[in-house]
Design goal:
Blueprint lengths: L3 H9 E10 L5 E8 L5 H9 L4 E4 L8 E4 L10 E8 L16 E3 L6 E3 L30 E10 L9 E14 L15 E10 L14 H4 L1 E11 L3 E4 L7 H4 L7 E5 L12 E8 L2 E4 L12 E9 L2 E14 L4 E10 L1
Antiparallel strand pairs: 1-2, 1-18, 3-4, 5-10, 6-7, 8-9, 9-18, 10-17, 11-12, 11-16, 12-15, 13-14, 13-16, 14-15
Length: 341
């Protein structure tokens, strides 16, 4: 079953991740193509984009029928807006390339470095393994800069009359570019570089500018609104507190299907393996999660906790077979193609 799962994802969402590297003169010096890996959250993102904000009520308008609110707002937070990058570097910002054990392991047969295997779920605290710190303009948050559609050609046959091959626009192409001046600047000289090791296609709240923010992780960047105080009782249900700042307005911001982050309300650490949980249902101030909040020793967390709503959703996540070096001498065009069968 573990073998069949990735194959199943491959058949449903096939795709290609393409990198085109150009020098200062615009010459292509490297061109790489790698298959993409689609996360389980891709299904969530697509399901939230499909429903309409209205449904037909045959009893409305004195029995003649009318469009009424469905109670569902197709939220653009679930649209792919960003291409996020992670890199292999140590605490001194020294590039590690394939010697970074967070990304690569040695194949016991061939003896060569190979990427670790990513699971289909929301691993690594819901984000990247080692995200490049974000602070504009030198550490840019890469937004999708171009969206186009491409055809694929498939046999028509039944139910079509003619048994020919027809083109259908079922390939979405999302693109962004790491420009020459969008250099991370880990070092102090032009010869310095960093190595792009992972890349992710993600959805999240619309961010126009980071302003003068200091270096931050994308996971924290996509936390939405103020912290909501809640009580954990050792079960998979937490109770939101309406007495805090914002009261009902803030707690209503958390809805069924959201991903939330549970933190300590002070400077302490709850020592969780992953602080991210999925909201299965919400009734008033009672929020049922996909699992019981526990610490790293599997002890249920009880007492007062802080809750943030997270809008970051990883559509696809890929560790590169070989890291890409980025300095102010190279421009890297990243193209993500997703084929919907």
């Amino acid at each position: 079953m573990l073998i069949e799962l990735p194959e199943k994802f491959g058949r449903e969402y096939k795709g290609i991740l393409e990198f085109i590297v150009r020098d200062r003169k615009g010459n292509v010096v490297d061109h790489r193509i790698e298959p993409n890996i689609v996360k389980i959250f891709a299904k969530e993102m697509l399901s939230h984009r499909l429903p309409s904000s209205e449904v037909w009520d045959p009893d409305a308008n004195s029995g003649t029928g009318a469009w009424e609110a469905s109670g569902i707002d197709p939220d653009e937070e679930f649209s792919a807006r960003y291409i996020l990058f992670g890199a292999s570097f140590d605490e001194n910002h020294v590039p590690l390339d394939q010697d970074d054990p967070r990304y690569y392991t040695t194949d016991p047969v061939t003896g060569i470095k190979v990427p670790i295997r990513l699971g289909p779920g929301a691993d690594y605290d819901g984000g990247l393994i080692n995200a490049i710190p974000l602070a504009e303009p030198n550490r840019p948050l890469k937004r999708v800069e171009s969206i186009t559609f491409e055809p694929s050609y498939q046999p028509s046959f039944t139910p079509y009359v003619q048994e020919d091959v027809r083109a259908i626009n079922n390939v979405v192409k999302l693109q962004t570019t790491l420009r020459l001046d969008e250099y991370n600047g880990f070092g102090l000289t032009e010869s310095d570089f960093f190595t792009v090791t992972e890349v992710a296609l993600a959805g999240g709240k619309k961010i126009t500018s980071l302003g003068s923010e200091c270096e931050i992780d994308p996971v924290d960047l996509f936390l939405d609104g103020d912290m909501v105080v809640a009580t954990a009782d050792g079960t998979d249900v937490i109770t939101l507190d309406l007495t805090g700042t914002g009261g009902t307005a803030i707690t209503d911001n958390i809805k069924e299907g959201d991903q939330i982050k549970i933190v300590s309300t002070d400077t302490g650490d709850l020592d969780q393996i992953s602080p991210y949980y999925l909201v299965l249902s919400k009734l008033g101030v009672s929020v049922q999660l996909d699992r019981v909040p526990t610490d790293s020793n599997n002890v249920p967390i009880t007492g007062t906790v802080g809750v943030y709503r997270s809008t970051l959703r990883i559509f696809s996540h890929r560790i590169l077979t070989v890291p890409l070096r980025k300095s102010d001498s190279y421009e890297i065009e990243c193209v993500w193609r997703i084929i919907f069968n």
